Amino acid sequence: MLNKGYVTIFISLLVMAILLIAITTITITDRSMARTKISTAVNTAMSSEMANYDRLIFDRYHILLLDKCASGAGEGAIEASMEENLRSNLGDSFTVNSVELSGCLGIMDDGCSEFKKQINDNFKYNVASIAVDKILEKTSGQDQPIGQKELENIDSDIDEKKKSIEESEENSKNNNKESDDSNKEAENSEADNKDKNDNGIRVIDPRITLQNYVSMGLEGLLLPQDISIKGNVVSMEDLPSDGQPQNKIEEIETNFTNINRMKMDAVKGNGWADSLITNAEAVVYASTYFNCLTEKKYDDTYLDFEMEYIVGGKKSEGENYKRVVDEIILIRFGMNLVYIITDSVKMNECKTTATLLTIEFPPAEPVVEYLLAGCWAYIESIADVYRLLRGHSVPFIKSMDTWTTDFESLSHLESLVSLPSDEERGLNYKEYLMILIALRGDTMYYRMLDLMQLNIAATEEEYSDPDFRMSNAITAFGVNADVSYGGEEFKIHEERGY
């Protein structure tokens, strides 16, 4: 009987142990399943929120981002939405205590690194490099047309010509001293020349003509008649680029009275190739998705001149257009000047005009000759932009056959449009914009985001959102969820991104 009692006790203890193990296993499994279910529900809720990406920005610009303020509803809108989603998915046996966003990654964070990443995903380097390589091929990679050697050659040529003139004048003076009759004859001859100049032989200084046009506003003269400038004004206060550094405005002195200033201006358009190569993907992205004066992709954008805005970053279309015109002229001026000083025919024409302009002070002739060459290079640059704005391409490196102007061309620019144009080898207006955008560095990314924000508010499409701000746009976020189940509290952290 005693043995039977021991057996009964042993079996009872064994059953209790098995039951305890079973209950513990069930409890652990239940808790594990509960955690898994909560984690899955959190991920589902996050996926649901990420599916609310801005449709207009994705459709037009192929950029995925989420407004963490849910179109003006506030930063707690996503948390409230996810909390409701969790309650629905988990059921009554779970209690959702709290849902908090954590670690949001904004589209503008870390120098727009997320925006850059998505642009690079859109345009793999080999695709973007094709467009950039095309520009480099057309320009022969000559982004520095005038160097120190060329500038020194100008100085040495001027010095040699001055020396020759001074020697000639000295010889003339010595000869004149031989007799009073010779002196009188020379004085009479000089008086005769002066009279002739006063009677119409004196040439009109083309620099004065240029200044008259400049004072009237070249940008107005160059704007095609079928293009109107929108009156919309950009308020910079809430835009991504607010606070970003502005590019220095480089200007050309159009008086052409100072040879040293002209040489300084000639090199201001140098050195853009490295920037174009480095920023290839972003430059091609901007040229693909944004309007410009010669190519309009969308009719409902806040600004018509969008690529021009990326270059200028100014409040009005007119200011951005003027900035682009000035900067293209700057690039063209260096290229045109480096050609004209190698063209003996054109330099002889400059010399002839300089001789007439400096008849009362001949030593100034060599300097004036080069200043007139600079003036002519500037006139050619104006003509280049005139053609570019009308959809033509302009050879980057000029030749005798592709030079289009004379000193009088500003009065008949319209006749230049009908001249032959090599569209295959010349750069067009949009390609010049790409060069200028490349020079903006990281500022270009903020200005592209400016345009997206402005257009979301301006469009009349279904996804218009006047309350959208890029400062609230995120591409990834984390969630801390606190959920209770069966008397136990579960803290779950999940992260998701596009």
Walk me through what this model shows:
The protein is an alpha+beta fold and 498 residues long. It is 57% helix and 8% strand. The protein has 18 helices and four strands. Strands 1, 2, 3 and 4 form a four-stranded antiparallel β-sheet that branches. Strand 3 (473-485) and strand 4 (488-497) form a beta hairpin. Helix 1 packs antiparallel against helix 3. The chain starts with a helix and ends with a strand. Residues 178-199 have low confidence and may be disordered.
Number of H/I helices? 18
Radius of gyration: 37 Å
Residues in helices, as a percent range: 55-70%
Helix and strand composition category: alpha+beta
Terminal residue distance: 74 Å
Number of strands: 4
Element order, helices and strands?
HHEHEHHHHHHHHHHHHHHHEE
Report on the biggest sheet: 4 strands, antiparallel
Q: Which range does the strand content fall in?
A: 5-15%
Low-confidence stretches: 178-199
Name the overall outline: elongated
Mean pLDDT: 87
Draw up the topology in text:
Layout: H1 2-50, H2 55-61, E1 66-67, H3 77-90, E2 94-106, H4 109-122, H5 125-139, H6 148-176, H7 180-201, H8 206-216, H9 218-222, H10 259-266, H11 273-278, H12 280-289, H13 306-312, H14 317-340, H15 344-357, H16 365-388, H17 429-438, H18 443-458, E3 473-485, E4 488-497
